[in-house]
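re: the backbone from monday

yeah here it is again, tokenized this time
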């Protein structure tokens, strides 16, 4: 049941989506757990001998995390909050990987506490002084060294991590740092992540990064190396970043070709060292759509502006990365033709936020939208709800999970009262905020 390699927005059941929007109102995220399971299965099928770790940041909903856990993937967490959510979804320490990026003290305190209860947890470290900060907290457990591989890839400069100095230990220092770390910790792996949204054309950068990691793991584990003691590493983690086709005519990534290229580039792996990958987007992106209702249609001299009730606070990617998301008009406007019978018209779909950048697309041909129509914004399951905010004092949307055809509200729509909760609670310090993590 690994399914097709991509689910396009037009593959969703339009009547089913319209019924969900009618029942739960818009904007509404819909996340299909069956599709999440199919994506997990395809990844495990393409990388049968690798450890597959879901990068939780793409979608942290409990229902998604539980589905991913049951599908056999581990969890890669980027913060105390993500770790907390993964624990709540039932991941045991042996399946949890915490990647520390300039970690706040509060996060390290929390992780130290988790490690006491779950000593099989692994902490991936990307700066030398993070080791000191862990040691100060009495941590002497499993660590992985994050390397800056010096080569990046990804759909936008803002998501290329490989060459960005913020991430990882410079590759020329990584071997020495890993060896030094063995004095205080159990060094179990090395890690690198080139970036996010790698498309077929960027496979060369991915291959180059993986090859560098292969060289490093061989150097570190070499029993005949210069007088250094070989490290007993369990894995080399080459990160995530597998892209999905957002544009309707873009071909899907050939996952088995990526897997073959990865295995070939990292080979030969020393005995006992496994390959690990950390996909986020690939697991959840095409399992989600965002439903939004047309509330205003305005013809200006320059363009036709279609105002909808979802904006950059609900789906930030178009405003932040100029990202393309497919949009399908599902119709529903009173007295209008069905969308199939309407003329394809170039429109700009704009949200309700007071920012010029608050558009979901510009001058794109859609079946001419009318007030009351429902639009489905596709491939919205990764970094969609996760990057939502309350800017302009807009409550965040609701989310429904589909599981074997059954729809359940998994995130209720926020209310206006939710917007002021933290202010009201600050006025009464003994209020329910309680703990400080
Ligand atoms: N591992 C590490 C260490 C990462 O930093 C990331 C993503 C991943 C794995 C997963 O990458 P993926 O397979 O999802 O591409 N908000 C951006 C994406 C930021 C990704 C950050 N790190 C977007 O919406 O495109």
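seq for it, each position gets an aa:
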């Amino acid at each position: 049941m690994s399914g097709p390699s991509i689910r396009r927005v037009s593959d969703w059941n339009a009547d089913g989506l319209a019924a969900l929007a009618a029942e739960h109102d818009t904007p509404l995220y819909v996340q299909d757990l069956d599709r999440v399971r199919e994506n997990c299965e395809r990844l495990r099928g393409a990388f049968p001998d690798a450890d597959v770790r879901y990068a939780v940041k793409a979608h942290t909903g409990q229902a998604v995390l539980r589905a991913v856990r049951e599908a056999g993937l581990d969890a890669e967490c980027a913060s105390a909050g993500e770790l907390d959510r993964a624990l709540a979804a039932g991941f045991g320490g042996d399946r949890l990987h915490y990647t520390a990026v300039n970690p706040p003290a509060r996060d390290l305190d929390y992780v130290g506490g988790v490690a006491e209860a779950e000593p099989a947890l692994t902490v991936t470290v990307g700066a030398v002084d993070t080791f000191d900060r862990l040691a100060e907290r009495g941590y002497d457990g499993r660590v992985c060294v994050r390397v800056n591989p010096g080569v990046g890839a990804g759909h936008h400069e803002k998501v290329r991590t490989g060459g960005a100095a913020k991430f990882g230990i410079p590759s020329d220092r990584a071997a020495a740092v890993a060896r030094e770390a063995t004095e205080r910790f159990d060094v179990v792996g090395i890690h690198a992540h080139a970036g996010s949204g790698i498309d077929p054309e960027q496979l060369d950068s991915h291959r180059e990064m993986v090859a560098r990691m292969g060289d490093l793991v061989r150097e570190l584990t070499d029993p005949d190396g210069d007088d250094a003691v070989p490290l007993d590493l369990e894995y080399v983690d080459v990160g995530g970043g597998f892209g999905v086709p957002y544009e309707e005519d873009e071909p899907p990534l050939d996952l088995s070709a990526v897997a073959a290229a990865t295995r070939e580039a990292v080979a030969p792996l020393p005995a006992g060292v496994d390959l690990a990958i950390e996909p986020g987007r690939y697991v959840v992106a095409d399992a989600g759509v965002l439903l939004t209702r047309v509330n205003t249609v305005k013809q200006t001299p320059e363009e036709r502006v279609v105002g909808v009730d979802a904006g950059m606070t609900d789906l930030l990617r178009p405003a932040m990365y100029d990202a393309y998301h497919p949009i399908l008009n599902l119709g529903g406007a009173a007295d209008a033709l069905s969308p199939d019978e309407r003329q394809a018209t170039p429109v700009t779909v704009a949200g309700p936020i007071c920012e010029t950048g608050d558009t979901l697309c510009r001058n794109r041909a859609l079946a001419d939208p009318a007030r009351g129509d429902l639009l489905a914004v596709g491939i919205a399951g990764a970094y969609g709800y996760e990057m939502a905010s309350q800017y302009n004092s807009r409550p965040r949307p609701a989310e429904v999970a589909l599981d074997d055809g059954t729809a359940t509200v998994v995130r209720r729509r926020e209310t206006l009262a939710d917007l002021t909760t933290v202010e009201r609670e600050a006025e009464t310090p003994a209020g329910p905020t309680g703990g400080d993590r």
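The first helix runs from residue 14 to 24. The chain has two domains: 33-282, 286-421.
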